[in-house]
Amino acid sequence: MHSNIFTIAFLAVLSIANALHFYVNTDETKCFFEELPKDTIAVGKFAVYEFDPNLNDYIENKNNLKVEITVDETFDNNHRVVSQKNSPIGQFTFTSLDSGEHKFCITPKHTNWSKKTRHRVFFDLIVGDAKPLVDSKRDTDVSYLTMKTNELIKKLNNIKREQSLFRLKEAQFRDVSESVNSSTTKWTIIQIIVLIGTGLAQLSYLKNFFVKQKVV
């Protein structure tokens, strides 16, 4: 368990932290862009609050408010690498597969679709060094990293199973193709032999016929 924390903590030497604070309406999407190096851990921490006209202040809404988080690789036809719908306060983690510009988008959504209001959003993005977020003495951090590691292992195992299944189907298709080609070749040879035999038989018959008719 501690070895996983050690590995993640030393994946990068420098860390880049970006803190954003902005306002957005319900169902309105706010995006920003960040250049990420290849094989770099990015951890986003967010907190979304909802305006309460009775209190004239922004409060936390744990029951009806959800936050949709997406991350797209703009350099790869906006290939989506993260798509989550979380509680108003939380975090997400992913590893950049290639170097390039990434687009981070945040959209507050209500489970009650008819409700529209104003939201205050805080967003922190830490890139590279995971050590500020990891404390091996805190069970919550260790459990979170263990969960993420198990998820990655599960995804890798699923990919391996899919690759094995694909190789098996490819081998079966190759065997069927070879069998069909072999049968086609044999059938063609048989047809040629039959045609030649038929031709020779007809020639022999005609020769005998002409001999009997004293034509030849």
Automatic annotation (TrEMBL):
<keyword id="KW-1133">Transmembrane helix</keyword>
<comment type="similarity">
    <text>Belongs to the EMP24/GP25L family.</text>
</comment>
<keyword id="KW-0472">Membrane</keyword>
<feature type="signal peptide">
    <location>
        <begin position="1"/>
        <end position="19"/>
    </location>
</feature>
<dbReference type="InterPro" id="IPR015720">
    <property type="entry name" value="Emp24-like"/>
</dbReference>
<keyword id="KW-0812">Transmembrane</keyword>
<feature type="domain" description="GOLD">
    <location>
        <begin position="29"/>
        <end position="127"/>
    </location>
</feature>
<feature type="transmembrane region" description="Helical">
    <location>
        <begin position="187"/>
        <end position="206"/>
    </location>
</feature>
<protein>
    <recommendedName>
        <fullName>GOLD domain-containing protein</fullName>
    </recommendedName>
</protein>
<keyword id="KW-0732">Signal</keyword>
<dbReference type="GO" id="GO:0016020">
    <property type="term" value="C:membrane"/>
</dbReference>
<dbReference type="InterPro" id="IPR009038">
    <property type="entry name" value="GOLD_dom"/>
</dbReference>
<dbReference type="Pfam" id="PF01105">
    <property type="entry name" value="EMP24_GP25L"/>
</dbReference>
